[in-house]
Amino acid sequence: xLKKWLREPLLHFLLIGAALFVLYGLQNDEAVSDSSRIxxxxxxxxxxxxxxxxxxxxxxTQQELEGxxxxxxxxxxxxxxxxxxxxxxxxxxxxxxxxxKIEFISxxxxxxxxxxxxxxxxxxxxxxxxxxxxxxxxxxxxxxxADKRGAQVQQDxxxxxxxxxxxxxxxxxxxxxxxxxxxQQHEQLSEQGVARLFGETFATKLFALPVGSWQGPVPSxxxxxxxxxxxxxxxxxxxxxxxxxxxxxxxxxGQRRTMDEAFYKSLRQRYEIVIADIMPEDIVGSEVVTSEKx
Length: 294
Prior knowledge:
The protein has 294 residues and is α+β, with helices and mostly antiparallel strands. It contains twelve helices and six strands.
């Protein structure tokens, strides 16, 4: 049991997260003790040169490099002075950005986890509906316009169906029925694809019909349809190898959500949260007066 727990990615994530915060705390303490000193290292200069080269496809000149360095120094000076003046406090934009950076740390840690074959297979089985390969259908339809034919449309449909189902039928289906904006021949449509053209009720009924014979009439929002299904495949669950990348991405996204929540809870426990009850007398017009309690 202990060995299994030690292999859990979530435990590794929490330990790495704790180590990062300890490291940050040490660095922060050191920065506070030396807040008046700005050090521009060779690595910083190389980074600025690389960014310039990536943007302009050439290295900066000496003058350009000095300008880049001075710009960075200016930014650092103004940043430190802003912190010293407390300008980062009560600023919604700054708060949101700092909160996002903490979330980025959590996301980076979650991205380091890689699923095993068993975990991928389990995830595929548990989320089968997300990875299902939909059934496909190829069919021909003859359309009868209910608005044009009125009360006669049902009788016309039954008569035409009888003619189409005759063994020696010579009806040209391209000329039978009424003109239809989406045509008569439809190939390899999923149920969702059929629904987009004819509506969900039509799609559901169509996939329940047998292959190879004229059937109907099947109603849609346009009128009535006589249909002949030429080919149909049922929906199926794919093999893991066929959808491995998609399953992996889904698994990683789930891990990220789980770790983000665990990360936040571990941080939240360090604080006392106080939210006051909202009493009727606290409500004035549309304004709600609140405070906090445990």
